[in-house]
Design brief:
258 residues; alpha/beta; Rossmann fold; six-stranded mixed beta sheet; three-stranded antiparallel beta sheet; 8 helices; 9 strands; globular
């Protein structure tokens, strides 16, 4: 096993990003963050701290009120987005749901067939290609959502608390599967969570955010080797990292309250 600490250049950088909604709510203020090519980074913080807002700004689904988003090469790369809910079309089977981004891009049919089959295989849904969302468990629906985000071969995968609504056993299994996909493809992943335990298990780097308005409080490197499995989750090393991150989160909360 080897450590995957990254020294890669930034793929995308947020520079003093602020976001104020029409209601007057200030969600982000002075958020500065580099996201490096190929790394797995988690944004960790309390509900309402602007984690999801930051993700949507990176994705181009929302505009910053201040600051800038800078991409390597000067242009935004290909992005896949996994939302908190699977957002599958109930009238379409799994194959059609996963194919949707390629259909919208008018991709070649043969290429699309191959890409969909590969994406379903990566998330373990090949046997459910013709099932409908109503026939799937919550975990399987999220797998389909991840496959849809992967099918275009995105450079950056943005994930907004995708496993928060799942039971613990399913969540652990999907954490393992996600790391397997990341290690295979080495895409850049930005994962939003409010779980210290999940962030430590998955990430190379954890960005701890302050309560609203969100900004970076501190960053914690998780220099544990991959692949990670149940042995890591029950290790003293994992417990120590969880304590460090919990302390960093508590300090961010205390600093905001001061």
């Amino acid at each position: 096993m080897t450590s995957l600490s990254t020294t890669a250049p930034p793929l995308v950088s947020l520079r003093n990003v602020g976001k104020t909604f029409d209601s007057g709510t200030v969600a982000l203020d002075g958020l500065t963050l580099d996201i490096c090519d190929g790394e797995f980074v988690s944004l960790l913080g309390p509900s309402g701290c602007g984690k999801s807002t930051a993700l949507r700004i990176v994705a181009g689904l929302s505009t910053a009120s201040a600051g800038s988003v800078e991409w390597a090469g000067g242009a935004a790369g290909d992005i896949g987005f996994v939302f908190q809910e699977p957002t599958l079309m109930p009238w379409a089977d799994v194959t059609a749901n996963v194919r949707l981004p390629l259909k919208l891009a008018h991709a070649d049919a043969a290429m699309a067939d191959q890409a969909v089959a590969q994406a379903l295989a990566r998330v373990g849904l090949s046997d459910f290609a013709h099932s409908y969302p109503r026939e799937l468990s919550g975990g399987m629906k999220m797998r389909a959502s991840i496959a849809r985000a992967l099918v275009t071969g995105p450079q950056l995968l943005l994930m907004d608390e995708p496993f928060a609504a799942l039971d613990e056993i399913t969540r652990f299994r999907l954490n393992d599967d996600l790391l397997g996909v990341w290690q295979e493809l080495r895409r850049t992943v930005v994962f939003v969570t409010h779980s210290v335990f999940e962030s430590v298990y998955l990430s190379q780097r954890i960005v701890v955010m302050t309560p609203r308005p969100g900004r970076v409080s501190t960053e914690v490197a998780i220099d544990a080797p991959y692949p990670r499995d149940e042995r890591f989750r029950t290790s003293a090393e994992y417990a120590a990292y969880c304590r460090t991150v919990s302390d960093a989160l508590a300090a961010a909360m205390a600093g905001a309250a001061a």
